[in-house]
Amino acid sequence: MLRKPLLTVLLHKPYGVLSQFTPEPGSRWGCLSDWITVPDVYPAGRLDADSEGLLLLTANGRLQQRLTNPRFGHWRTYWVQVEGSPDQAQLDALCNGVMVKQQLTKPARAQRLAAEHQQTLTQRNPPIRTRLSIPTAWLELSLREGRNRQVRRMTAAVGLPTLRLIRHSIDLMDGGLPLSIRGLASGQWRELAADEHQRLVALLNQQPRRRSV
């Protein structure tokens, strides 16, 4: 029996918002209280203020720990706009691992973002910087670890600086569809549906399994 309710909401976090409810004195960034009115929910994981996309917030501490525990290796998928035009060698390097702060990243998944997904993207507010002489491209990058500013450091390591970063989805690793921001505009949020709620309840009863990569 859960000691705290499993109320969980999914937010499409906008650019410029800290993953916390209390503003930082003197900071130029906003905070979650500007967008979320549900009481007693807290982020399960975080996104940097200059990143956008999926942020789960829950009232249940056990669920927060479960979703952020690296032993469970949830795939998190990011849509990343980079400066430059990636070649296969750069994509392979992202998949195989690159050195970030003297440590090799774990194997990942990297490919160009499909055209139909790019068509769903709206302009960021404020817009990204652009340089007419340098092309940009969109990648889909999936990770099973969450080191500090990892996506930005990985793309920079292969010569593709990140211009815009959107966390699109998280895989609950239960055979169902990943939870995603599909259908949510920037700043919008929703409570999880009944079937999604039941999937989270089931997660709390699982034990971590040895992962293969």
Description:
The protein is α+β, with helices and mostly antiparallel strands and 213 residues long. It folds into 2 domains: 8-70 and 174-203, Alpha-Beta Plaits, CATH 3.30.70.580; 75-169, Alpha-Beta Plaits (2-Layer Sandwich), CATH 3.30.70.1560. It is built from 5 helices and 11 strands, in the order βββαβαβββαβαβββα. The chain has helices at 61-68, 88-96, 115-118, 150-157, 194-203; strands at residues 8-13, 42-43, 52-58, 76-83, 99-100, 103-104, 109-112, 136-143, 162-170, 179-180, 189-191. The strands form 2 sheets. Strands 1, 2, 3, 4, 7, 8, 9, 10 and 11 form a 9-stranded mixed β-sheet that branches. It has a two-stranded antiparallel sheet with strand order 5-6. A hairpin with an 8-residue loop joins strand 2 and strand 3 (52-58).
Observed structural traits:
213 residues, alpha+beta, Alpha-Beta Plaits, 2 domains, two-stranded antiparallel sheet, 5 helices, globular
Q: What is the strand and helix layout of this fold?
A:
Elements: E1 8-13, E2 42-43, E3 52-58, H1 61-68, E4 76-83, H2 88-96, E5 99-100, E6 103-104, E7 109-112, H3 115-118, E8 136-143, H4 150-157, E9 162-170, E10 179-180, E11 189-191, H5 194-203
Parallel strand pairs: 3-9
Antiparallel strand pairs: 1-3, 1-11, 2-3, 4-8, 4-9, 5-6, 7-8, 9-10
Q: Considering DSSP H and I runs of 4 or more, what fraction of the residues is helical? A: 10-25%
Strand content: 15-25%
Average pLDDT, to the nearest integer? 92
- Going by CATH, the homologous superfamily of the largest domain would be Alpha-L RNA-binding motif
Count of DSSP helices?
5
The overall strand count is 11
Per CATH, the architecture of the largest domain is 2-Layer Sandwich
The level 1 CATH classification of the largest domain is: Alpha Beta
Structural class comes to alpha+beta
- Structural domain tally: 2
Instruction: Give the oligomeric state of the chains in this entry, treating copies of one chain as homo and distinct chains as hetero.
Output: single chain
Low confidence ranges: none
C-alpha Rg (nearest Å): 17 Å
Net shape: globular
Give the ordered list of helices and strands.
EEEHEHEEEHEHEEEH
| Topology-level CATH name of the largest domain | Alpha-Beta Plaits
Largest sheet: number of strands, sense, barrel closure: 9 strands, mixed
The N- to C-terminal Cα distance equals 34 Å
